[in-house]
Design a protein that fits this description.
With 291 residues, the chain is an alpha/beta fold. The protein is built from twelve helices and ten strands. The strands form two sheets. The protein has an eight-stranded parallel β-barrel with strand order 1-2-3-4-5-6-7-8, surrounded by five helices. A two-stranded antiparallel sheet has the order 9-10.
Length: 291
């Protein structure tokens, strides 16, 4: 099933008001955060607040992630226990650097009887993770691992590598591309990192467009004001959808059933373009179905 993940908003688990407000936001997904946004002495309170929010089950079509604390902390086991009971759509795990980390998560979820519908997403946010991307992504071939996607942590990578966070991200593009390639090689979804300057609407729009053009499925967000522009960037334009439907219809003609390429509007169109068109239409239809 194709599911839109254009806009994915981080919501602090320690902020009950923010979680309540999030119910009315037009984001495709939300990440209830137990990690960076929650102080050590507020972890228990945030864990309960997130469990209560998920139990209410009134987030509509929005996908719900819970970002747990890293495996190098004393909190992740309790976090996963809460996740297993609350049953969000997915758990997002930070600081994953090796396939063994995924095995540790999988073993814990199995031990506590977590519903297999709860998927695992991982943060790519360290130099070691980037160097091990292929091996980490390949773990998706094991259904017990539950791996469904990557979320790029651009701030953390910049901190660790001493890269500057610059407009256009020219210095980061090689490894951003590697993240996308690794995800697609193993059938995973992938979300871009956050944009820190909430007041810079023009820069944010440009980075959304860049992420879209690089093949990301959507972008993680830190403020509700970023949702609208992000949705606009990752929603296929109406003319693109119309053209996609025309390509599909053309290949569905009986005379084209066995052809690998056809002419359409004076251009050569291959069957791979029909496959791309089907995804464009599926995403557009899924977005329209959300209302």
């Amino acid at each position: 099933m194709i599911r839109p993940r254009r806009s994915v908003l981080y919501v602090p688990g320690s902020n009950a008001r923010a979680m309540e407000k999030a119910r009315a936001l037009d984001c495709d997904a939300m990440v209830f955060d137990l990690e960076d946004a929650v102080a050590p002495d507020a972890k228990d309170t945030a864990r309960k607040a997130i469990a209560d929010a998920i139990a209410a089950r009134n987030f509509g079509a929005r996908e719900i992630f819970v970002r747990v604390n890293g495996l190098d902390t004393p909190w992740w086991i309790d976090d996963l226990s809460m996740v297993a009971k609350a049953k969000p759509d997915a758990v997002l795990v930070p600081k994953i650097e090796t396939p063994q980390h995924l095995t540790d998560i999988a073993n814990r979820l199995t031990d506590i009887g977590a519903d297999h519908a709860i998927r695992v997403w991982v943060m790519v946010e360290t130099a070691r993770a980037i160097l091990a991307l292929r091996e980490i992504a390949a773990a998706a071939s094991d259904p017990e691992v539950r791996l469904s996607g990557f979320v790029v942590g651009t701030n953390d990578v910049a901190k660790e590598t001493r890269m500057r966070l610059t407009k256009g991200r020219e210095n980061m593009l090689p490894w951003l591309s590697l993240c996308v390639l690794s995800a697609r090689a193993y059938g995973l979804e992938i979300l871009d990192g956050v944009y820190n300057d909430i007041a810079d609407a023009e820069g944010f729009a440009a980075e959304c467009a860049q992420a879209r053009d690089y093949g990301f499925d959507g972008k993680t967000l830190i403020h509700p004001n970023q949702i609208g522009p992000c949705n606009a960037a990752f929603t296929p334009p109406s003319d693109e959808v119309a053209q996609a439907r025309r390509i599909i219809a053309a290949f569905n003609q009986p005379e084209n059933a066995t052809k690998g390429a056809i002419q359409l509007d004076g251009k050569m169109v291959e069957r791979l373009h029909a496959d791309m068109a089907k995804r464009t239409v599926a995403i557009a239809d899924a977005i329209a179905a959300r209302g």
